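Researcher: Please predict.
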Amino acid sequence: MAVYQIVKIGDPVLREKAVHVKKINSNIEKLLDNMADTMYDAPGVGLAAPQIGVSKRVIVVDVGEGLIELINPEIVSASKKTAKEVEGCLSIPGVEEEVTRPLKVVVEGLNRNGEKITIKAKGLLARALQHEIDHLDGILFIDRVEKQN
């Protein structure tokens, strides 16, 4: 497979709303493989397609529990209880800030076979999924940092 250059803050693709994947084909499967290779090489715990310059709704995440590949992921529910934790981003190297996010989320999407999957996530996995899905909507984690008075 291939390791891609990660797009850095300032590139307009990071601020675009990524395009819905209409058909899963060999190009999407290759994209998933290359995204995983790029994420592991970085190293990171998640990567969204816009971070390699591809405006498609595709993410990969691995917080140490195995690779998760999601096409057209959506957060369908989130806990009211939140936590503030430090986050970083491969597209904003050297920056780490505290971000408040729901502790638990339920995410639905498609796997590489086009099958609908549901992930009930908490802790780091929930945070990583939210972070990567934000990328698909042109939102960077620094947009969620609370302003200091």
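Model: The chain has one domain: 12-144.
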